[in-house]
């Protein structure tokens, strides 16, 4: 690749990233236009949101103790050095906790609200021409597969989160670059997780979701990172979960080369 092609590729990737983020905005617009249906999706989000918010508040309360637990090597340091390294450790713990909370919240909420979110996703697809290659998936089979895929994705997040947690101790880098990487990883996993319903509707599993989204990774990342950032806002995950499901249906259609202009 010549040097002049590199900036062009970067600009193209940037546009697709922004286009992916815009799919969440379109999901929100659909949410506003169909409040009766979308409000159904808030019920499971409220249930799991209360659980995970409580868990994160507990984490914040005990973060000082946890920071001391993971930094025993600093016990004999000067007060300034010890406090500094434990402040960094606390931030790293909260960052890892935020990543896992957002991903686990999404996984649990999708499982709890499977019938609601399946209906939201299906209604969105009907607006844009339906699903010509749809297959009938029994409810319990869909629920089991959704739960299994969610567990795998959360386990992957834990494996990725551990080295990110360790990297959080690196001065400056751990407080600047690592959070960006964490948001990108979290965004990618959210995108893969949220497009589950439209792919199941087509008889396609987790491996297919990953392969299709990888073909246009900037768009998937744009959507996933936008959702991830919004879910970090207090009550954002609860209020925007139905909109994220609607946006994910559009992402799936776009990734599969199907129209996302209303029929």
Automatic annotation (TrEMBL):
This is Membrane protein. It is found in: Membrane. It is a multi-pass membrane protein. The chain crosses the membrane at residues 37-64, 84-113, 153-174, 180-200, 221-252. InterPro entries: CysZ-like, CysZ/EI24. Pfam families: EI24 (PF07264). PANTHER family: SULFATE TRANSPORTER CYSZ (PTHR37468:SF1). It comes from the Bacteria. Keywords: Amino-acid biosynthesis, Cell inner membrane, Cell membrane, Membrane, Sulfate transport, Transmembrane, Transmembrane helix, Transport.
């Amino acid at each position: 690749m010549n040097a002049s092609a590199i900036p062009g590729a970067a600009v193209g990737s940037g546009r697709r990233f922004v286009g992916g983020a815009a799919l969440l905005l379109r999901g929100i617009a659909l949410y506003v236009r169909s409040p009766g249906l979308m409000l159904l999706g808030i019920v499971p989000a409220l249930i799991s949101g209360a659980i995970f918010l409580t868990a994160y508040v507990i984490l914040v309360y005990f973060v000082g103790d946890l920071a001391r637990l993971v930094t025993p090597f600093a016990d004999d340091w000067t007060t300034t050095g010890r406090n500094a390294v434990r402040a960094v450790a606390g931030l790293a713990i909260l960052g890892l906790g935020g990543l896992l909370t957002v991903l686990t919240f999404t996984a649990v909420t999708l499982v709890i609200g499977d019938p609601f979110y399946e209906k939201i996703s299906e209604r969105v697809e009907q607006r844009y021409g339906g699903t010509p290659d749809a297959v009938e998936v029994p409810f319990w089979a869909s629920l089991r597969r959704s739960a299994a895929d969610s567990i795998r994705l959360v386990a992957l997040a834990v494996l990725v989160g551990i080295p990110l947690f360790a990297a959080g101790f690196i001065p400056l880098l751990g407080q600047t670059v690592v959070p960006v990487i964490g948001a990108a990883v979290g965004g990618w996993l959210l995108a893969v997780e949220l497009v589950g319903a439209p792919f199941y509707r087509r008889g396609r599993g987790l491996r297919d979701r990953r392969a299709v989204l990888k073909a246009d990774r900037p768009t998937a990342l744009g959507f996933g990172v936008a959702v991830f950032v919004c879910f970090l806002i207090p009550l954002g995950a609860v209020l925007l979960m139905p909109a994220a499901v609607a946006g994910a249906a559009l992402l799936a259609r776009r990734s599969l080369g199907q129209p996302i202009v209303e029929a």
